[in-house]
């Protein structure tokens, strides 16, 4: 499939009702066709890995084309410059999450960017930092616990950010780190209890939601079984 064919294909799959539904979930409806993720994954499988094509798709500015770009790009050749260029253009939480989990988390720069982006002011860039932390906790099986321990003070520091897409990502990162193994579960619970004491409604929500999951019997049983 070439670039022009793919754009025509995406447009043919447009679903205005789906676009309206996406908007209700806080997804930017500008330049959006309302195509489901399963359909995009099906297209990505047919296309295969194409770095140059991915760059073209991203440059189109079309919501679904950008998600598709993250699915067909090649993580081994993605540069820090490309990552910085793309993250600056994140305009919706789903594009942020899909690009991070489909592509960015598999680059050699993932942990470095997680820390760097967590310090940024822009809502979706900051979110990207914590999405990366959450995803690395799930997918990077070879990483040392120390990599995730260094994320915990950052999570605590940003726990008062009341922007919806930031606080949910902060909470997600804390929960995923705490479900990685017994040692990190203990560390994450300790961090959640520290966050709980902060005089902030957002911080208290993050702590309460994380503690509820990290201390429940199902999670504790799973962690024990993974030893």
Describe what this molecule looks like in 3D.
The chain has helices at 3-12, 16-24, 37-47, 51-59, 63-72, 80-87, 93-102, 110-118, 123-139, 145-149, 151-158, 164-178, 182-196, 201-214, 217-225. By secondary structure, it is an all-alpha fold. It folds into 2 domains: 1-89; 109-227, Alpha Horseshoe (Leucine-rich Repeat Variant). The longest helix has 17 residues, at 123-139.
Q: Which helices and strands occur, and which strands form pairs?
A:
Layout: H1 3-12, H2 16-24, H3 37-47, H4 51-59, H5 63-72, H6 80-87, H7 93-102, H8 110-118, H9 123-139, H10 145-149, H11 151-158, H12 164-178, H13 182-196, H14 201-214, H15 217-225
Strand content: under 5%
The CATH architecture of the largest domain would be Alpha Horseshoe
Straight-line N-to-C gap: 46 Å
CATH class of the largest domain: Mainly Alpha
How many whole angstroms does the radius of gyration measure? Answer: 18 Å
Describe the global form: globular
Q: What's the domain count? A: 2
